[in-house]
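Re: the 364-residue chain
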Amino acid sequence: MYIWSDEAWPAWQYDLERLAHPLSEVALAQGILLGRLMDIGADQRDMASLTALTEDVVKTSAIEGETLNVASVRSSLARRLGVDIGALTPADRHIDGVVEMILDATQNFDLPLTQERLFGWHAALFPTGYSGMQQIDVATWRQAENDPMQVVSGAYGKQKVHFEAPPAAALPDETRRFLNWINHDETHPPLIKAGLGHLWFVTLHPFDDGNGRIARAIGDYLLSKADRSRQRFYSVSAQIQRERNAYYDQLERTQKGTLDVTGWLAWFLETLKHAFEQTSFTLNDVIAKARFWQTWRQAPLNERQTRMLNKLLDGFDGKLTSTKWGQIAKCSPDTALRDINELIALGILKRTEGGGRSTSYVLA
C-alpha cells in the first residue's frame, strides 16, 4: 500500500498544533536573515542571491547524483540576472536548462503553474531527449507501457522497491487535480503548502525522469509565492543535499504511510529553518568579499590578479601554487610568479610555511 492508494487520497491531514513550534522557529530564522539583508547594499544582496541560486541549481542535480560545473552555473545565472561577475564561463544547454527552470520557478511565482509550464521545465532538463544513455519521453506524462514506475535501489536481481507511483492512466486526472490545488487552494498556511506541493508531485512521479528536481522546483515556486520576492537568498535543495539520506528515508516512510503527513511537514520545516541559518554563513562570505574589494579598490591589479583573487575569495579548492596560478590564468610560470610577488608586496597575499616546490599562497 502506498499513500496514493488510500481511499481518501489526496485529503492531506496534519497536526497544526504540533507544527506550530517548527513554524515559529522558521519565522524567527527568516526574520533574522531578512534583518541582516536590510543592513547590506543592493550589490551585496545581488551577490548573495546569485550565490544562493547557484547552490540551488548545483545541489538539486547533486541530489540525483549529477555533478554540474559550479562556474558554468554561476555564469549562466549571472548572464540572466544581469549581475557583473567579471569573466564568464561557458555553459552547455543542459546547465542553461536547469538554470531556466529554477529562475522561472522563483521569479515568476505570480504566474499560474500549468501543464504546459511543467512540460517546458521538463524539456529544459532534457534538451537532447535522453537521460544519460536512455531515450525518454520529454514534455509529456509517462506512458502506460512503462508501468509500473518504481523507485528502486540495489544490484539487478536484488533490487529493493522503495516506492511505486500511480499508474500512467491515472495521471491526466491526478495532475489536473494537483495543478488546480496549486493555483486555487488557500486552506493551508503557505509554508505548509510548499511542503505538501513537493510531496504531492514527487508522489505522482508523472515524468519518465526528473521528478525530484521538478518537485523541488515546485517547492521553490511555492516558497517564492509565500515570500512575495523575486530574489532568493536561501536554498532548500542545498540543505536537502546535506541531509540526502534523511530526505529519502523520510520520503519513503511518508509514501508508505497514511495521509497524516505531520512527520514529513515537521522534517520539511526543520530543513527550511536550517536553510535560512546556512544563508548566514553565505552572507558572511559575501560581506567579507565586498569589504576586501572596498579595501583594495585602488590597488593596481591586472585582470589575472583580479580573477585569481576572486577564486580565492570564493573558496579555492586545494593549495594555490605558482604552477596552478599559471595553469588557471593561462600565463607563463615567470608571469605567474611576478603576479604573485606583486600581490605579496602589496600585502594582499602571503606565503605559507614550507618552501621550494611546496610553496603555496593564501590571502594575507
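The radius of gyration is 23 Å.
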